[in-house]
Fold this sequence. Notes:
It comes from Falsiroseomonas selenitidurans. The protein is an alpha/beta fold and 579 residues long. It is built from 17 helices and 15 strands. The strands form three sheets. It has a seven-stranded mixed sheet with strand order 3-2-8-4-5-6-7, with helices on both faces. The protein has a six-stranded mixed sheet with strand order 1-9-11-10-12-15. A two-stranded parallel sheet has the order 13-14. Strand 13, helix 11 (341-354) and strand 14 form a beta-alpha-beta unit. It is globular and about 70 Å long. 54% of the residues are buried.
Amino acid sequence: MPITAEEQRFLDAVTLDAPWDLVTTFAGMHRWRPEDVNQAADIIVEKLRRHGIPVAVHTPDICLSVPLDAAVTAGGVRYRAKPPSSALSVPGGRTAPLVKLSANPKALRSYSRDIATLFGGSITSVEEAKRMVGGKIVIMQGFGNPALTSLIEEWGGVGLIAVNPGIDIHWGTCTTIWGSPDLHDLPRKPKIPVVAVNNPDGLKLMALAEAGGEATIMTEMLEGWFPQSIPVVSIPGTEEPDRFVLLHGHYDSWEVGVGDNATGDATMLEIARVLWAKRGELKRSVRIAWWPGHSTGRYAGSTWFTDAFAQDLDENCLAQINCDSPGCRWATSYHQTRAFSESAALATQAIRDVVPDADIRTMRPPQAGDYSFNNIGLPSFFMLSSTMPEALRKEKGYYDVSGCGANIAWHTENDTLEIADQDVLMTDMKIYLLSVLRIANAEALPFDWSATCDEFDATIAGYEKASQGAADLAPARAAVAGLRAALAGLEAAPLPARNAAVQDLSRILVPINYTREARFAHDPAFTVPPLPGLAVAAELPTLEAALQKPAQVELMRGQNRFVAALRAATRRVQQATGA
């Protein structure tokens, strides 16, 4: 759809003055220790108020794990290292024999806990892994991510050294706990020290491991509950002020974090400025939130907000839009755009209307970012923003990273002002603004649940094929067909009834597709397969005989959950259409 005259007035109001001022300010300050993070929040608040924008500041206590120091000592040499947040703090060091594991090169950033995915056949069973790893410090290529850390710990490993792909060492996290822990989460806090080293040092350590050497890992962490500021701007709509779109991103960063995420903070500042100035033209409300605790709290800021305002989000939030790493150098492609199926057309069209010749592809968001709203069931899109064209990334010899527009300065001390690009930032700000407007000002909410049915059908077919005849998913297929048939009449329903049904469908269908835990809880921070209740069907041919019956029980229960949800969704649509 072409940009309307009304939308163009909003886009024409976007300038670089306020956002670039924030980018350059944040380029001069670290934002990862608790006191620095709060200082950064004060700057955001001051800049908002300078433009006359009211802002609420929440100050919850959230659980953080802040790296202070780390090193690996082996063969009489001390190697520089960085500990990911939530690694076990061992200031006195832990010494053990080294064992090298061979990683699947295609899974260096994977959050999967699947052995075949992570190790590509070099390890074939849990029993083999335990024999290899027990009592040893594991060293392997990749990043010390949550899924891998939890597996090494389960297998009896006493430490993990992640060998990063390049000359720099990347900051990260290693806990599967999403946000601040509750009593159920606490046992999953990592119980082993984890560090990352650069590739040249890692090659030396891997050679030492192959020679039967040992190493000492030292980590020192600052951990506890800290008051952290969460600025939130609420811009009221004129027709449905209770209903709102949530635009959000993190303002804490590793080092000065220009591309991840000062540019995102600046984007949200500018959108707040434009929307506040033109608030009389908004039909529905927009809330914009800046999160702490993304880097050192595993999304603790957004998780606190989700928990504290769960009922309001459940009743009134139309969608969440995540703003991370826009406006980065050379990032002119959109071929890695994250979006739920029901939101993909909206995201794609907004990009296409701002950048007509863009390379756009949407994909399922991973269990990452500040997607702390899946268990409530919000339609969602964007996570990382524009990125480098794949050909250019390969030409530069850059390995794959999770932000900064594919610049390998991501999560390093090199993510400085040169990573930001004013022209790309201007483009991305307009894309985000247009996306927000097309929900806030839409007559009919622009979420396509038929596309979600398409995804469900494809997922079910894939699981049936992988099961090699061992799984009967006919009830699931029939449930999708029933919902699809009901949706055919939704467009003709009265607009208020149609919009209410579209919103209610998200509360049913998003959790069934993205979560295992109950609504208002939070799933662990590792990969959730599509329709997780049915995913065991694909494993049936590879499970040993003793696990076949329990797996069939799990599948039966998962299919019951799915069918019940789809039937509830169908009834909700029929209620709206009078069928």
